[in-house]
Every structure is written in C-alpha cells, then in structure tokens.
Design a protein that fits this description.
With about 725 residues, the chain is of the alpha+beta class.
C-alpha cells in the first residue's frame, strides 16, 4: 500500500512538513548552486554579499529539521543541504553536541520547557558547531512533535548575513524593557563573533534624560552579555558598572574627531597596549583566546548626535574582522539604536509613574484604624504601570477615610488622572462631604477631563474609571460606603466570617448621561476587630475562572488573617497567594483593621431644640469632664464652646440636637448635630454686629473646626487641645 506523502497527510508531523518544504528553498541548478548561494563551511569568515533581486531570499536560506526524543537525543534528521555540511548529526547522539559548550544550559532549558508546556519557541538565533571547528549561524525553532509521536522537532534555517540583519532588527524591537532589548541585540551580534556585550550609559539604563556627555564623564553599565557561561574572575558581567578608566577609554575610542565611530582593535597585543593595565584587561577581555574586538557606538540621531552606549563583539585570533563584516555590524547597531532609546523612554515613564503611585500609598490610618497596603506593579512586558491607587487618612472630625480606585489605561496619562482624582477625593472628604457626594464630583471631573481639548485630543480617555470610598465612624463603629463601578470590598467580622459586601452596582466614572444614577450609600456595622479589604481587579481577575470565584478566593485568604497578625505581613501574604506571577495588570490591596474608641472615651446626648438646651448641655458636659479629670482651663473652654454651638443650632436650625464628646489623643472633640443644612461661615462682622459672633468664639477657642453633612442635616465639630 502506498504511503501518503507528508504534504498530503492531515496528520503530518512538523518534521515531515519542514522536510517537504526543504525543496522549495534549494535554488535551481542543483547542489552546486545551493552551496554557492548559501555559503560553504567557511562562511563565518567570508560573508556572502547579496544583491537585491526576486530570488535573493531563496538563495540566502536553507531549511532543515531534526527530530528529538524526550531525552533530547536525535532520532532522525534532514540536514542534507550543502549549507549544513560538516555538522556531525548522528542518530542517537544528544542534540546539544551540535552546540557550543556555553550555549548548552540555555538551549537545554528551552528544549525541556517546550516538552513540558507544549508552547513553541521560535526564531532563536543560534550557532552550531561544525566538525572542523567552524560555526554556522541558524534561526532555530523548537516545536512539539505531532501526536502520536513524542518528543520535539527542531527546525533550522541557515542564514546568510543580509537576511540575518533583517531577522535581528525584527526581533530586537519586540520589547520595551531595556535589559531585554539589550539582550536581543547582543544575541544578534553573536553571529559575528564569539562574545557580544552591550554597555549602556548609566542614564540610559536608569531611564534618565540623555544629554551629550564630556569624554571623561560617561559612565557605562553592562546591560547584556552573551553567551551564558562562567566568566573569569574580575570580568565585568551583566548589571556591573565598568571601571571608571574603562568607561573613559571606551568613550575616547568611539569619539574621534567629534563624531562617534566604530573601532576595531585587531589583536591581543594592541588590546593590552590600549587598556594599559592588567586590571582593565581582566575587566574587559572575556578570555585568553579573545584577540580582537569591534566597538560599535549606539548613536541616537540628533543635533548633536548622542551616544547611548557601546556594543562590543570579540573574536579569536584566527577570525579577524573584514570591512564587509564591520559594515554589517554598524548597520545592525544603527538600525536598532532607536529601540534602545524607546526602552529608555519607557523606563523613565515607568519610574515616574511608579514614584507617583507609591507616593499615593497610605502612610497611616489614624488612631482608630490600623491599615496596611500592598502595591505590586505589572510585569515589565506589560503596557506600563497602570492607574491603581489606594489611600487611607484620618479626617479632621475623627473619622477615617479608605479609598481605592482604578483609572483606565496605563502610563503618564493614567498617572496624571490618578493623582488628580486621589487628591480631589481627599480634599472633598476632608471638607465634610459624604462618599456619594464625593463620587458625584469625581464623575464630573472625569467627564471634564475627557473633553475634546484635554482628553481625546491627547490620546487618552479616563471614562470608565472606578472608585470606592468608605468612611469609618470610630464612635458608632459603622462604615458608610459608596462605589462607582468598583469591585465589592470584603468584610471579615471578628468571629472570622468573611464575605463581599452587597454593594449596589453602579457604572464607572464618566458614564453616559443616560446611564447615570444617583450614587448610593451602603452603611454597615464594623465592630472592633473587623477587617475590611479594598482592592483592584488585578488581584482577583483570572481569565480561567469567573470573577466571583476570584473574589471568593480573596475572602477565604483574608479570613485567615489572625487578629494578632502584623497587618503589613498579612497583606503581603494575601497578595503573594492570589496575584498571578506574570500579571498584565497592577495589583493593589488595602487592609483596614477597625479599632474604634473605647466606650469610656465617648459620650452622646440627644436634646430638644429649646432655649434651655445650651444650659442642659453645659451641665452634662461639665460632669463628663470632671469624670475625665480635665484641667479647669480646658473645661472652661469646652463649656463655652459647647454653649455657643448648641445656641447656634437652636437659633438657626431647630429640630432635635445631638451633642457628642470624644476623648482622642491629645485633644477633645466636640460635635453638635442639628437638622439644618446651611453652612456656617466665619464672616467679618462689625464690632456691635451680633451675627456670626458665635463662630468667632469657636474659631478662637479651638485648634480646628469644620462641618460635615448627614442624611438629616449637618454636624459642626471642633477640637480643643487638652
């Protein structure tokens, strides 16, 4: 029975598919033509010059395939094309025998990773060793073998120089991380030598602004070094700063006649003479076999041009650089220098946003609430730092505000909006507005920021940002909470029961007018010892599970926090247990442990709005202050203050009056609530004008005072130092 060809079989293995495609890439004219086009075993020392033309791509690459078993041994191969001549491919031998020794650990790790995960690893620039000691540059891809076969298929594309330039430039621009960009460039440069290193100006490495340096001021740090091997003692490896003298010498070498130029030092004797000291030789020369080096500057076009760093390619004595290879090196570095600068700009923006974000993290929750927060930025391969923010701060009237938000987008646009919303929320809460009223203002702010001039024209929109605000009253041990499109907080009661709060859903900030509804206020009891968790979606979202399940996992994790646990350690433990290892979104968590005031430190009375209300309040407060053993001068000031506040409430508001005294820290907090909604203002009254006299008295007697609004009216509060 005839066996179907690989190209016609629906179950063809990757090996068969690559093998069948091999003939398409062998140029017409037979093996001799293929050998002439792709290069003989000595191609590394004599690169082929390719003239553009329709058939140029076909004459610059040859495909081959190698099948491996699960022990990474060769089971069959198709490397018959002339370009692969000299490779010692033996069935049953380890595939890594074809590699330079220093590449064995990295490639082995890649092979086993594909075996375990099934995810292909494609287009790795790799060197293979020929039997005569020369090397062949290939583009290597690792694929899982098609069922029912086991193991791997490794496809190899032998690459000529010009094609390698194109492939390298394409690969280098795939990351905005400085280290990864430098690593990709170094791996590509390895096709021209035995060792490649990228040394970047320290300002580039840290994301700072790049300016034209004097020759003696440049400071270089090694950003990438390949291959991965054990280096001799004293040699500068990845992450190390080059010695000051080495940075100075490299700067002088590439800056000649006020222009950045490539420099080749051809032999070991010249290298030692230029470096001048054994210490610098140990720091810069990778091994005793390294006899020549090409130093190519990474230049950012401008007026004047700015040198970002230096690329170094080292070779053995028997492989000197020729002019054609030096031109290829310069071309590749020139094409990819702007990718390094893009990574620098991304690093600078990432650093700025991260600094702003950490600046917004809460410092303290006050005396009645213990808080701890964790902010974990997204991984470097994400689109940038997001707009997550949390804050907790004591309000002037003794309550505590807890705020969490998530601004749409990433980068500086999101960071600017995040900072504005955070500061605006804090100011409005400190001014006495309720959580729902604050969200109404933030909703208007987001809409205003998204107008044609400041929002969409700048390429950024904050519409749909979310926010959740909770205000804790340490006397009543209750929390008032409002949410704009945010995920529900999780409450853990003192007995250990944990569940998300049943907060009524509401659209995010800046929703269309037809979708807008009044923001609701959810009020709930939070007895001393309760734990409230506010968070952003990066902590609980997982594409593999429903969002409710993610919130349930958070509730389970928070419920394990013991009342005696250090809250900061508990918060880090919760985040490490829930957040993904390589998240695409920021992770933020705020834990608040409710403490409140002791029962003996507060007192509340409800009085009718009658003419004798001020006298009645003075009697009750006086007895309390004696019980608290307050000093006489402080007691006199408090009694006068209470008398004025109650009198104003009876005169201008009416309805039942609530008087509350709180002993907190180094002060006494006096509160008088009424049913009025007018705002008391401190005006400039004339000498005999009685209007506003009470507020002037309050102003002189207190350290600070203010007003907050409630569902039934307002509360005027004032703090008197003890």
């Amino acid at each position: 029975m005839d066996t179907p060809s690989p190209s016609s079989s629906s179950s063809s293995s990757p090996f068969d598919l690559v093998s069948s495609a091999l003939g398409k890439y062998i140029p017409r004219g037979g093996a001799g033509a293929a050998a002439g086009a792709a290069g003989a075993p000595g191609e590394d020392t004599a690169p082929v010059r390719v003239h553009p033309g329709p058939a140029a791509g076909l004459q610059e690459q040859i495909l081959g395939a190698v099948n491996l078993d699960r022990e990474l041994r060769i089971t069959r191969s198709n490397l018959d094309a002339p370009v692969f001549a000299g490779l010692d491919v033996v069935t049953g031998s380890p595939f890594v025998d074809l590699l330079p020794p220093w590449d064995v650990p990295t490639v082995t790790r890649r092979l086993r990773q594909v075996l375990e995960t099934g995810e292909a690893h494609v287009a790795r620039v790799q060197r293979l060793r020929r039997a005569d000691g020369s090397e062949l540059v290939v583009s290597m891809s690792i694929l899982s073998a098609a069922a029912p076969q086991e193991g791997l298929t490794v496809s190899l594309i032998a690459m000529a120089r010009r094609l390698h330039l194109y492939a390298a430039e394409t690969a280098i621009g795939t990351s905005l991380d400085i280290g990864e960009t430098a690593q990709s460039l170094a791996e590509s440069l390895l096709a021209w030598g035995d060792v490649a290193a990228i040394d970047l100006d320290f300002a580039v490495w840290t994301g700072e602004g790049v300016t034209e340096h004097g020759q003696g001021r440049i400071r270089l740090r090694r950003a990438a070094l390949v291959p991965d091997r054990v280096w001799p003692a004293g040699y500068v490896t990845e992450g190390d700063d080059l010695p000051k003298d080495a940075s100075h010498l490299l700067s002088q070498a590439i800056r000649r006649d006020d222009a950045a130029q490539a420099v080749v030092i051809p032999d070991r004797e010249s290298i030692e003479r230029v470096l001048g000291s054994p210490k610098l030789v140990r720091a810069l020369v990778p091994s005793d076999r390294s006899a020549g080096v090409a130093c190519i500057p990474l230049v950012l076009d401008g007026s004047p041009p700015v040198v970002l760093g230096v690329a170094e390619v080292w070779r053995r004595a028997d492989r000197p650089f020729n002019d054609g290879e030096l031109l290829d090196l310069q071309e590749l570095v020139a094409r990819t220098s702007h990718h390094v600068d893009l990574a620098r700009q991304h690093q600078r923006e990432h650093t700025q946003v991260l600094a702003l974000q950490r600046r917004l993290l809460p410092r303290t929750g006050g005396d009645t609430v213990e808080t701890a927060s964790v902010y974990q930025p997204a991984t470097p391969d994400s689109a940038g730092v997001g707009g997550d923010w949390v804050n907790s701060f004591p309000l002037p009237d003794g309550r505590t505000a807890l705020v969490v938000g998530d601004v749409v987008g990433h980068g500086l646009g999101a960071a600017a909006t995040m900072g504005q919303l955070s500061m605006e929320a804090r100011a409005l809460l400190s001014a006495g507005l309720a959580p729902d009223e604050v969200l109404e203002h933030l909703d208007k702010t987001v809409t205003m920021l998204d107008d044609a001039e400041s929002g969409l024209a700048a390429g950024y929109s904050a519409l749909g940002s979310t926010c959740c605000i909770a205000v804790y009253d340490p006397v009543s041990h209750r929390v008032a909470l409002s949410s704009a499109g945010h995920l529900p907080p999780v409450l853990v009661l003192p007995d250990g029961r944990a569940a998300p709060l049943a907060v009524r859903p509401h659209p995010g900030l800046g929703a269309e007018f037809a979708l807008r509804e009044p923001f609701g206020v959810h009020t709930f009891a939070a007895p001393p010892g309760s734990l409230l968790a506010l968070y952003t979606d990066g902590l609980v979202e997982d594409p593999a599970v429903p969002i409710d399940e993610g919130i349930g996992r958070l509730a389970d994790a928070v419920s394990t926090v013991h009342p005696w646990d250090v809250l900061e350690e508990a918060a880090r433990r919760v985040v490490s247990g829930l957040s993904p290892q390589r998240g695409r979104d920021d992770v933020t968590l705020l834990l608040a442990r409710m403490i409140g005031y002791r029962k003996g430190d507060t007192a509340t009375w409800r009085l009718p709005a009658r003419d004798d209300a001020a006298a009645r309040a003075r009697t009750l407060v006086s007895a309390l202050l004696r019980e608290w053993r307050t000093r006489d001068d402080t007691r006199d000031r408090v009694l006068l203050l209470v008398s004025e506040l109650v009198t104003n409430a009876v005169r201008f508001a009416g309805g039942p009056i609530t008087v509350r005294m709180i002993r907190a820290g180094h002060g006494l907090l006096c509160e008088v609530g009424d049913t009025g909604n007018g705002r008391p203002r401190l005006g400039r009254g004339e000498l005999l004008d009685d209007s506003g006299r009470g507020l002037h008295v309050v102003h002189r007697l207190t350290a600070r005072w203010g007003v907050r609004w409630t569902d039934t009216g307002k509360v005027v509060w004032a703090v008197v130092a003890r």
